[in-house]
Write a structure and sequence with these properties.
Blueprint (H helix, E strand, L loop, with lengths): L1 H28 L4 H6 L5 H11 L5 H13 L13 H36 L4 H15 L2 H15 L14 H35 L2 H8 L4 H9 L4 H25 L5 H10 L3 H29 L8
Helix pairs in contact: 1-13, 5-6, 5-8, 5-11, 6-8, 7-8, 7-11, 8-11, 11-12, 11-13, 12-13
Length: about 325
């Protein structure tokens, strides 16, 4: 068990190091001059040179990478070129909104997927099963941003039940929650389509096992067999997809936040890329990568809790 945790943690650290190298190298190889972006086309060469010295852009690449990593390990990601404030403050200000959206989307995804997946498996080769498979296939084929636009047109423009975009802040909880309903649904509907199909397939595979037939022969109801005996033993592939989908939901907020004009990390990274704000983009990409790697690490630990037999193999 200790060796398993040490190996996973080592893989976690090495992945982050590799990502940091790739992110830093790519961001510094891309065409464009941050100093020119900040000062504008009318800036003089002396002003541009002075700003490059101030930002450290004239230093060797390896030295800049070392300074960036050292600062990042201390929570210092530099100062945003666009907003003129520390990048850490920008992230701390906008992270709660993005995480709230991702967690709400993941919660709705799990509820929809379990209900649809278990229902489809319980009605295998019947109308309910075919209906769920058709809806899941449709959900997989529809892009999240296009679905978001349709939701805005229907519920915000046509029916006027919900706001079309924007975020009033957490000082007004009721309005804040209403503003997150459509983005949450847009994220969850697409992801739940994938998870519902995985749930259905995993449950059908477990239902063919001998102990399930024994439970049915003992007189247990279909509902009890499904939720008490089948679903717990079908969770390993489901948890795998849930972990992958949570990472996808966090990164998927980049598109959704721009569609709904939400002031989260997704909109921040879009603005930072447009403004060639290197410190902010590097910090955000590393943050998204850390969330993905951390999620995978947690999923690996969850396997041991779901299936104790795996402890003997670690």
């Amino acid at each position: 068990m200790t060796y398993f945790l040490a190996r996973r943690f080592g893989s976690f650290v090495l992945t982050l190091v590799a990502v940091s190298i790739v992110v830093f190298a790519v961001m510094n190889v891309l065409p464009g001059d941050p100093a020119l972006t900040i000062l504008g086309l009318d800036a003089t060469e002396d002003a541009l040179a002075a700003l490059r010295d101030q930002l450290g852009l004239n230093q060797p690449l390896l030295q800049r990478y070392g300074a960036w990593v050292t600062g990042a390990m201390q929570g210092d990601f530099g100062v945003s070129h666009s907003f003129k404030v520390p990048v850490a403050d920008l992230i701390a200000e906008r992270l709660p909104l993005t995480l709230s959206l991702a967690v709400a989307g993941m919660g709705l995804t799990i509820v929809l997927a379990l209900v649809l997946g278990v229902g489809a498996a319980a009605n295998h080769r019947k109308a309910g099963d075919w209906g769920v498979m058709f809806l899941s296939q449709l959900g997989i084929a529809v892009p999240a941003f296009w679905l978001a636009i349709l939701l805005v047109l229907l519920f915000a423009v046509k029916l006027r039940w919900l706001p079309p975009g924007g975020f009033p802040g957490w000082d007004e909880p009721g309005l804040a929650i209403k503003s997150l309903i459509l983005p949450t649904v847009a994220l969850a509907l697409v992801q739940s389509a994938v998870l519902a199909r995985v749930t259905r397939s995993s449950i059908l595979e477990v239902m063919r096992q001998d102990y399930v037939r024994t439970a049915r022969a003992s007189g247990f109801s279909q509902t009890r067999v499904l939720w008490r005996h089948v679903l717990p033993n079908a969770l390993v592939p489901i948890v795998t997809i849930v972990g992958m989908q949570f990472a996808a939901l966090v990164t998927g907020t980049i598109v959704i936040e721009n569609v709904f004009y939400l002031p989260g990390l997704g909109r921040l990274i879009f603005q930072s890329i447009a403004n060639r704000d290197l410190p902010t983009v590097q910090a955000l990409v590393m943050l998204f990568a850390a969330i993905v790697v951390t999620t995978n690490f947690i999923v690996d630990l969850a396997y041991l809790l779901i299936d104790p037999r795996l402890k003997a193999r670690t």
